[in-house]
Design goal:
Length: 649
Amino acid sequence: MERYFLTTAIYYINDKPHLGSVSETIAADFVARYQRKLGKQVLFSTGTDEHSQKVERTAQNLGLPVAEYTAQAAAAWKSLFDKLGISYSRFIRTTDADHVKVVQDMFQKLYDHGDIYKGSYEGWYCVKDEEFLLESDLVGGKCPHCGLDVQHVSEANYFFRLSRYQDRLQQWYEDHPDFVSPEARYNELINVIRGGLKDISVSRSTVKWGVPVPFDENQTVYVWFDALINYATTAGYGTERFAKDWPADLHLIGKDITRFHGIIWPAMLLALEMALPRHIFAHGFWNFEGEKMSKSLGNVVDPAALITDLSSMIGVDDSLAVDVVRYYLCRESTYGLDADFSSQRLLLRFNTDLANDLGNLLNRTLNMFSRYKDKLGGQSLEPKMDVGRVFETAIAAIRADYDALQFSAGLEKSWGLINLLNKMIEDDKPWALAKSNDFVALSSHLATLLTGLWYVANLIEPCMPTVASRILSAINRPQSNWIDLTWNSPGPMVPQVDSTVLFPRIQPDQLERFLSAQTARKASATTQLPSQSPAPAPSSAEELVTIDDFAKIHLRVATILEAERVPETDKLVKIRARVGNEERTIVAGIGKHYEPADLVGRQIVIVANLQPRKLRGITSHGMLLAASAGEEMALLTPMSGLPDGADIH
Ligand code: ME8
């Protein structure tokens, strides 16, 4: 079986996880699951970076022995990753005994080969970023990366002969234009190499909480040197397995640590005569509603709190809330570039992509199946081949996106398939097929939906593992890798209709509670004024009405509580809707386009002050608004949930 080895950066143990940092592990989990779907055996590592003076100090401040503090903090990171559904093969801690041994072996080997030598360092050090800095690196006397104060350091320590590998590294970059991506990062790094590399300090005499230098008891290994080696430990350096798993196929890291991974690490590997990683991908940063996420601004998004807010206020369980967050992070960013977290956008994605498009497709399919299954008798379930061809072509394109780590583009294409199925329901009108006793067409329609959903669930599994497995259990079909997906008869189907309703639609009061909880969590609220845009000119020479004319019409938001067909009509649906404090009945001519059951819970826009009128003996109090073009019709609905009764201006 083909193997695939990928890694995330390992997290500073004394930082609290935030949405930005865990987004890296979620993206890596996406890749790991995707590679498994291609039939590969995946080795996937993540973990914690535990040595350094700042860790020792944090433990002291907490009054804990440092080993106890790191054990607790590592357990918290690990349990968060478990909650997020991260399918790591190893959660590595740099305090693990096998890792300490690998670090010491490598340090010794480099020393024996003359790649490490004793010298003395005089200069600056940033404790936050654990980085040695030149005077010329400083910006206003502070660290150029985090902006914090730097320490002046003067100590005897060991140096790694980075300068010795400059030419070979440059050659490597020139021969491997895909070594680092995005391209901008590759260019940045090759320019640094061309500019010349200096030897770097790789041990500390003043830090006690570190891996001891094997041949000098007064020194510990520099934390970055120790941390980078975690990738070799995970692959089983020094054991038989190593030959199979080395080198890494992918190091996934953030844009702030490219020099360590793209220059120092490959030079260490060249010195150790070990193969270089196949690919390094440096992603961008998540900001918070336009600002950099930072503790001092009080705007870091706590992933655990976000999941709690989503599950308790929107009414989904924790593992579904996790998938909502995973989907949002992967869909809402162009991977490699910076992205901006927004609670509003998260809810919009929830309502449109998850509740409306995907949730609705599953519910409609299962409802139809339970309604019509008795009528299908002995009909064989043959999915439509033309739809199957569209799916097969899309999978090839989605693979190309995921191979390039373009998660959003691949998900967008998967949603193209979901909406193809939704549109097929509108076009085929299965309720009309049932009415006209066309059971051959009806069974093919249902088989296409079930097979399509089987594909969809397996396609979105890398992003949303819980959603995928719930869909699969609802339609009673197995997990499958992508190679074994075949567009053929789903066989006798026994969907488990009870386990439906993946994502209940967000009700207005839930929406408000979620948004206000998010706002309350943001310590430094910034107020942004909506931008003023000029009034658009009328698009044609239609008869103009004055604002006073328009003000006579009261448009309001209503929520549909019940919907049923008016007996003996194709077109009319009787709706019970809540408009503010009152409930009213509205009869609407939408029966050819919507299944009444699908309307319940939806928000619509109604003309509230229309004179009542009788249709088929039922008095209709108001009219709902829909747009139509030819045969197509779509109900108008607010883009995000609102209290019903809300006025429309
Ligand atoms: O740098 N958005 O650890 P770390 C996206 N221990 N990614 C972010 C982010 C944000 N807002 N903030 C942080 C270290 N990250 C070292 C790594 S590896 C041998 C040693 C990413 O906890 C960051 O870019 O500061 C990095 O890839 C990862 O989180 C860990 O950062």
